[in-house]
């Protein structure tokens, strides 16, 4: 029973869908199906019920899922201990701008408990680089928000946050319970510098071409709203200064918190980081 095959099985068992599991593993569906069938032959039991309604675990599959997770976790621990003995137990994490998210706080505590001998280096970046230095080779893994160009990267969603429009508290629209993007037509929105990822820029402009002041950091965004009446967006739950208000946008896609790393990177410290992050942000 190979660890790789167990990882394949865990992906299918967690997604309960071969197509989604194949996408998660960055492989095509036929070899994934063959690998799971071979695993069933190796253990001598059916692990999954396959039907037109989807995929479900058999009792044997439920047991194997629990055991496989334990085995894969232990394998990662072994790799980390070997890396530590070789003096290579360091991981550099890129974090985007405002790093006060409670999920990140839980992640930091859980990662330290799991890997007390690993040195975690943190590189905080401004809003002009949603990959937090990943493409430039400055970090091993990025804890950031999408969307951005994911070419050559693996991007794993951790959480989806509804968003709202940031307005001056004395703006007539600030008294509304919610807004639609069309109600903000003609308003000035903050912009990111030329060369910023266009997918990222378009999202924070509500999917429309806009005009407005150029900003680089979260505080600059807030100041642009305060001083100029500029419109901005922020995830709901971020509390602005008293002079500003956040009104939920009902027709805007949520802001997705993601972990991203270079495609094909098999560093166990990164894999463990993503596993712990998934649990931390789910909580």
Care to give the gist of this entry?
The protein is 39% helix and 21% strand. The protein is α+β, with helices and mostly antiparallel strands and 283 residues long.
Structural class: alpha+beta
Low-confidence region ranges: none
- As a percent range, the share of helical residues equals 25-40%
Strand order of the largest sheet: 4-3-5-10-6
Radius of gyration: 22 Å
Characterization of the model:
By secondary structure, the chain is an alpha+beta fold. It contains eight helices and ten strands. It has helices spanning 3-15, 18-25, 29-43, 59-85, 102-114, 198-204, 218-228, 268-282, and strands at 48-51, 54-57, 90-96, 119-125, 141-145, 153-161, 163-168, 232-235, 244-248, 255-262. α1 packs across α3 and α4 crosses α8 (268-282). The protein starts with a helix and ends with a helix. The mean pLDDT is 88.
Properties at a glance:
alpha+beta, five-stranded mixed sheet
Give the topology.
Blueprint: H1 3-15, H2 18-25, H3 29-43, E1 48-51, E2 54-57, H4 59-85, E3 90-96, H5 102-114, E4 119-125, E5 141-145, E6 153-161, E7 163-168, H6 198-204, H7 218-228, E8 232-235, E9 244-248, E10 255-262, H8 268-282
Parallel strand pairs: 3-4, 3-5
Antiparallel strand pairs: 1-2, 5-10, 6-10, 7-8, 7-9
């Amino acid at each position: 029973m190979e660890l790789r095959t167990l990882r394949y099985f865990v992906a299918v068992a967690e997604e309960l869908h071969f197509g989604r599991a194949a996408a998660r593993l960055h492989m095509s569906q036929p070899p994934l199906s063959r690998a799971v069938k071979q695993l069933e032959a190796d253990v001598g039991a059916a692990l999954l019920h396959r039907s037109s309604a989807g995929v479900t675990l058999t009792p044997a599959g439920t047991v194997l899922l629990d055991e496989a997770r334990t085995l894969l976790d232990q394998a990662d621990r072994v790799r980390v201990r070997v890396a530590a003995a070789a003096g290579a137990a360091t991981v550099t994490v890129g974090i985007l701008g405002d790093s006060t998210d409670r999920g990140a706080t839980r992640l930091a505590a859980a990662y330290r408990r799991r890997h007390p001998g690993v040195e975690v280096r943190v590189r905080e970046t401004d809003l002009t680089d949603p990959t937090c230095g990943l493409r430039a080779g400055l970090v091993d893994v990025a804890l950031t928000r999408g969307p951005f160009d994911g070419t050559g990267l693996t991007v794993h969603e951790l959480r989806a946050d509804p968003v709202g429009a940031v307005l001056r508290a004395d703006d007539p629209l600030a008294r509304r319970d919610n807004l639609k993007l069309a109600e903000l037509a003609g308003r000035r929105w903050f912009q990111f510098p030329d060369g910023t990822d266009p997918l990222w820029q378009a999202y924070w402009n509500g999917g429309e071409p806009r005009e407005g002041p150029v900003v680089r950091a979260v505080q600059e965004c807030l100041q642009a709203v305060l001083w100029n009446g500029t419109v901005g967006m922020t995830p709901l739950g971020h509390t602005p200064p008293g002079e500003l208000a956040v009104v939920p946008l009902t027709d805007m896609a949520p802001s997705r918190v993601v972990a991203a790393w270079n495609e094909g990177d098999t560093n166990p410290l990164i894999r463990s980081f993503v596993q712990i992050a998934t649990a931390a942000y789910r909580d």
